[in-house]
Amino acid sequence: MTLLIPSYSVQIGSQLWKEQALQVQLTLAAAPLIDVMTVRFPAAAPLDADIGDDVQLTLNSGETEEKVFTGVVQAIRRGFSSIDVKAINAGGLLSQYCPAVTYENVTTATVVRNLCSDADMSTGSLETGSELPFYVADPARTAWQHIHRICAWSGALVSVSAENEVQSAVVNATQADIALRYGREVLDLGRIRNAARIETFVVAGESGVGSVSSPDAHRPVTDFFAGNRPDRPSPTVTWTWAPALRTTSSAATAGAARKRNYTAAADRGVFTAFLQPKLRPGIVLEMQDLPSGLTDGPVWIHSVRHTLSSQGALTRAEYFKGGDSFDPLALLGSLAGAIGGLL
After folding, report:
1. Among 227, 258, 261, 266, which Cα is nearest to 241's?
2. Least confident of 40-54, 227-241, 243-257, 283-297
3. 131 neighbors 247 (Cβ within 8 angstroms)
4. What is the CATH number of domain 94-169?
5. Could you tell me which residues are beta bridge partners of residue 168?
6. pLDDT greater at residue 73 or residue 217
7. 94-169 has the same fold as 7-88
8. Which of the listed CATH numbers 2.40.50.140, 1.10.10.10, 3.30.1490.20, 2.40.30.150 matches domain 178-194+265-326?
9. I need a surface site. Which of 139, 153, 198, 208 has the fewest CB within 10 A?
10. Domain coordinates of the chain in residue numbers?
């Protein structure tokens, strides 16, 4: 039997720490939530750090080593018994920026890149998303909230990579990326199934054209659905208005995306495992050898908390149900049906 010895390496400014921390805790979450890292040192630790210093965290489970966080120091708290250093990454910094800008003839990815560039943040792989004749990024929302909003119209999950790059992707939760086993990696698991009474999510735009290149794309219409109006709002039907979505196809995709996430969240859970540095928002996994009644998978991760302290090295993850209903092609299927009904 091999004894696994978890470890960490945290770079704060010019200092590298591998042993003195009392606790290292990292929370990774999909937008609109943000990632936060907290490191607690003894009060006597020779910490030489300031607000804005660069931070990197690498975790080692004893089997695998991963860089898991890159960001900057947001706060330092000193007390009689300890020093707490709090760091955030691109999501937290974009949450401090309230833009006031209008974009024309763009895609979702273009808006994300521009908002990140304005805040001096980098981007990674981005889902192209909807075509938008215009988008108003008003200061009533933060840049991070705008990014989450427009990516959600395409069913894309937004997160920040270990290299501090904003990224978005439509989660394909039909096949697992990782397999964990109860009694080996997984220590505890709970599942919650909620009633999912809403059957239809309707998103209405403003123009109802077939293409953003149409000369009528900026012209409001009285009937976005061209005489084929869905069922009115009710306990099983919910409506949302999104004037930036000018085409029937983009509105149909947004409605399908909301239904997809709603269905997944109705069957959710949380598990605790020995430290698993590879787990991040958007990762799809299956859990083997679970007791009857618990979800085997595939499931997809929405948020993760890695903790290393004198009490052990653990990962706690919140997951949503995956499966065939969480196939990205389901969005296209819903879209085709919606467009067919409007023709």
Report:
1. 258
2. 283-297
3. yes
4. 3.55.50.10
5. 158
6. 73
7. no
8. 2.40.30.150
9. 139
10. 7-88, 94-169, 178-194+265-326, 200-263+335-342
What is d(CA 218, CA 136) in angstroms, rounded to the nearest whole number? Answer: 14
Strands 178-181, 284-288: pairing is: parallel
Beta strands in the chain (DSSP E): 7-12, 15-17, 23-29, 36-42, 54-60, 65-78, 82-88, 101-107, 122-123, 131-137, 157-160, 165-169, 178-181, 186-193, 200-204, 237-241, 267-274, 284-288, 299-309, 312-321
| Amino acid (1-letter code) at residue 148 | H
- For residue 84, the SS3 value is strand
Q: Say yes or no to pLDDT of 292 above 90.
A: no
Q: What are phi and psi of 70, to 5 degrees?
A: -135, 125
The pLDDT score that the predictor gives to residue 325 is: 67
Band (pLDDT 50/70/90 cuts) for residue 191 is: confident
| Burial of 44 per CB tally in 10 Å (0-12, 13-18, 19+) | exposed
Q: What is the pLDDT of residues 150-172, one digit of tens each?
A: 999 999 999 999 999 999 999 99
Residue 334 has pLDDT above 60, yes or no: no
Q: CA-to-CA distance for 192 and 205, rounded, in angstroms? A: 34
Among the listed residues 302, 280, 31, 30, the one whose alpha carbon sits nearest the alpha carbon of residue 148: 31
| Helices of type H across 53-162 | 90-94, 108-118, 143-152
Q: Does domain 7-88 have CATH number 3.40.50.1820?
A: no
- In this prediction, residues 196-222 reach a mean pLDDT of 84
